Amino acid sequence: MTDTDLIDAAEAPPAGAPSGMAPDSIGDMTERDRWFAQMEERCLEEGYFEPLGKRHWAWFHDDGPTLLVTFETIDSILARPERLSAGFAVASQKGWSHLCLIADGETWYRDSSVYRYFDRLVDDSFFEDFDRVVFYGAGTAGHAATAFCVTAPGSTVVAVSPRATLDPQVAGWDRRHLDGRRFDFTSRYGYAPDMTEGAGKVFLLFDPLHAEDAMHAALYRAPHVVFLKTRHLGARTEEVLNALVLLPRLLLAAGDDTLDAALFARLWRRRRRNGAYMDGLIAAADAKGQTRRTWIMAREAALRIRAPRFRRLAARLNAIFAIDDPEDEAAG
């Protein structure tokens, strides 16, 4: 028995797991119970929904010849208005097929049941049925996307701030996920950069000013890896990309084989209309004592975003530089 098996054996099944579920009535069902029941009913006619061990599930929606594979959590799915995966929202726009690996919590998908599932897909030549396969994940799920893409040679990978590994011998400098070190990253699907060697293109989105994310990205050294840098976003990269509706655009472009650095650069121009990005830009200038640059960024943010915090900062710095209120200046 592996370390991962021992960990899984110690975990109790999550509330709402399909196996053994027998509520007395619909009223007794938890939110998860209802969602599991809905998914099983939904998949009677399209694809399948199946448990993988105690903390993972696979949902496959069979549609077009392009397949989008995403790694998500059950809590993030239940938080969405339609209670379906973010990947499905993208895939359904183009009539693509969708495979979602769902985790209960931060499992890193380091589970022998998940490994066996991907082994089965390979044995069944599952990925060969599609003209194009795109893997997506962010953060800990970014590790999974870049690791399991090895099962679909030639696939495209889009990963936001992916973790290459948590093996302390390689990434001991990353202390953000100390609990995750209990998982084995030295065995199968463990060191993600090696797993991407057979991929077509690997697009990594990360903030190069965020030390840990930049160091993980640097471990992906293959020539087909494309770095798409999102400065000043730090750990909020995926959040901001979604807020700007850029992430769906990037995934759609990946599925159409049109994603490249030039397209990202054009789309990335929207960032100056996002408060989180401007917060990071202003904080960086302020940390360096660049008062004039801070003032310029605050004025720009006050004009474009009109959030109160930017207006207050701009007003305070306007007094220093003897400049009128940015709205008055714009009106003039």
Written description of the protein model:
Strands 1-2-4-3-5-6-7-8 form an eight-stranded mixed beta sheet, sandwiched between helices. The chain is 43% helix and 15% strand. The chain starts with a helix and ends with a helix. It is globular. Helix 13 (275-287) runs antiparallel to helix 14 and helix 14 (291-304) crosses helix 15. It is an alpha/beta fold and 332 residues long. It has helices spanning 3-10, 31-42, 74-78, 86-94, 112-123, 140-148, 168-171, 192-195, 211-218, 237-243, 246-255, 261-267, 275-287, 291-304, 308-321, 326-331, and strands at residues 48-52, 56-61, 66-73, 97-103, 132-138, 156-160, 201-206, 225-229. The protein is built from 16 helices and eight strands.
Features:
alpha/beta, 332 residues, eight-stranded mixed sheet
Supply the number of helical segments.
16
State the end-to-end CA separation. Answer: 73 Å
Mean pLDDT: 87
Tally of extended strands? Answer: 8
For the report, how would you describe the main beta sheet? 8 strands, mixed
Walk across the major sheet and give the strand order.
Answer: 1-2-4-3-5-6-7-8
- Following the backbone from N to C, one meets helices and strands in this order, namely HHEEEHHEHEHEHHEHEHHHHHHH
How large a portion of the residues is in β-strands, by DSSP E? 5-15%
What fraction, in percent, of the residue positions are helical? 40-55%
